[in-house]
Design brief:
Length: 201
């Protein structure tokens, strides 16, 4: 999020697939737009996969998804939509973010949140499934109840309007992600656990 000379805040929303923002953060985006913020969508795919129609071509599906995404964005007050196409080094794009939203209704673990945290990006996620094991409320991100758009928007604005707060949370997020979920530590812990179970059986 940046502030222009005329005081209008600009927000860049990055997502993996078309419709991700509408399904996961439409209320927050609409609120930002209503408050006068200029919002830009960046989609890190072309939206050319996922049809069950055998006659559908990838090119035609991408055209449909592009048109649908632009129409949906316009309804929320988003004027600019960019499709980057397939990307290999997604972590580079992720690391450029100021905030990561994971507004899932259901989530087994929250791997996407962990990936963001590893890139020093603070997370706002829903308090579901295993997500509270990953995100510590008020420490490296915030947790909200599913559907609580107002609370998610409030936390997002707090992080985005205070660069120091976002940076502090982001650094803590990376430290916690590495400390609690680094493969070099987690894999030996699992191996030792399984060895103990086998030896006791």
């Amino acid at each position: 999020m940046t502030e222009s000379p005329n005081g209008v805040v600009r927000v860049l929303v990055v997502m993996a697939h078309p419709d991700d923002a509408e399904f996961g953060a439409a209320g927050t985006v609409a609120r930002w737009a209503k408050e006068g913020r200029q919002i830009t969508y960046v989609i890190i795919t072309d939206g050319n996969r996922g049809s069950s129609d055998p006659a559908m071509t990838a090119e035609r599906l991408a055209q449909i998804r592009h048109a649908e995404q632009r129409a949906a964005a316009m309804k929320l007050g988003v004027k600019d939509v960019f499709f980057l196409g397939k990307q290999d080094a997604v972590y580079e794009k992720l690391a450029a973010a100021d905030l990561f939203l994971l507004p899932s209704q259901l989530e087994s673990f929250g791997l996407a949140a962990l990936e963001a945290m590893a890139c020093e990006v603070p997370v706002i996620a829903t308090n579901v499934g295993g997500v509270p094991e990953v995100v510590k409320h008020g420490v490296d991100g915030y947790l909200v109840e599913p559907g609580n758009v107002k609370e998610a928007a409030r936390y997002a604005i707090e992080i985005l309007s205070r660069a120091d707060r976002g940076r502090e949370m982001g650094k803590t997020a990376r430290i916690n992600a590495k400390k609690n979920f680094c493969a070099n530590d987690v894999i030996p812990a699992y191996e030792n656990y399984y060895k103990r179970i086998v030896s006791e059986s």
